[in-house]
Design goal:
Blueprint lengths: L3 H16 L19 H9 L3 E7 L6 H18 L2 E8 L6 H11 L4 E5 L14 H9 L3 E3 L3
Parallel strand pairs: 1-2, 1-3, 3-4
Protein name: Resolvase/invertase-type recombinase catalytic domain-containing protein
């Protein structure tokens, strides 16, 4: 049981709580919706934008940290250019093009998809100086953007 000495701090705290202005609560609060802009609004905006996917050849980079850095730069590029950033296809082998083939299959199954690559080197053929960018754009109809020119 609380004595008078214990009740006084509780009464003061209760009165202070009533005197402080209350934060306004949206009528949508607690219903899975919010009336204030937040990350969910950014996500919704991204769903209405055209899709941008990335392609990176791992052999041209010196570390895994560079991949993460490039993915962040690609996401920023997508945002600035009005795209929604999708998956980044990473080619781990210099002898096969499994990620490139998967990228082509994905683009053929979608509408309005563009591709971003870090530099023109990422679309050079391992077999020689063949520039895959032009062939890729012609074969898929997807526009290829360069992160760095």
């Amino acid at each position: 049981m609380l004595n008078c000495r214990d009740r006084l701090p509780l009464a003061l705290m209760a009165r202070r709580g009533l005197e402080t202005p209350q934060r306004s609560v949206s009528p949508l609060a607690g219903r899975g919706m919010s009336s204030t802009p937040d990350l969910d609004d950014d996500l919704f905006d991204d769903l209405t934008r055209p899709l941008l996917v990335g392609y990176i050849r791992r052999g041209l980079l010196s570390s895994e940290d560079e991949i993460a850095e490039l993915e962040n730069e690609m996401a920023l590029f997508a945002r600035l250019e009005g795209y929604s950033m999708g998956y980044t296809y990473i080619e781990y082998s210099d002898r096969t093009f499994a990620a490139l083939e998967a990228l082509v299959e994905f683009i053929r199954s979608q509408e309005d998809v563009a591709v971003v690559i870090p530099s023109p080197l990422h679309f050079l053929s391992a077999a020689g100086p063949l520039n895959l960018r032009v062939a890729f754009e012609q074969a898929t109809g997807a526009r290829v953007h360069l992160l760095a020119s």
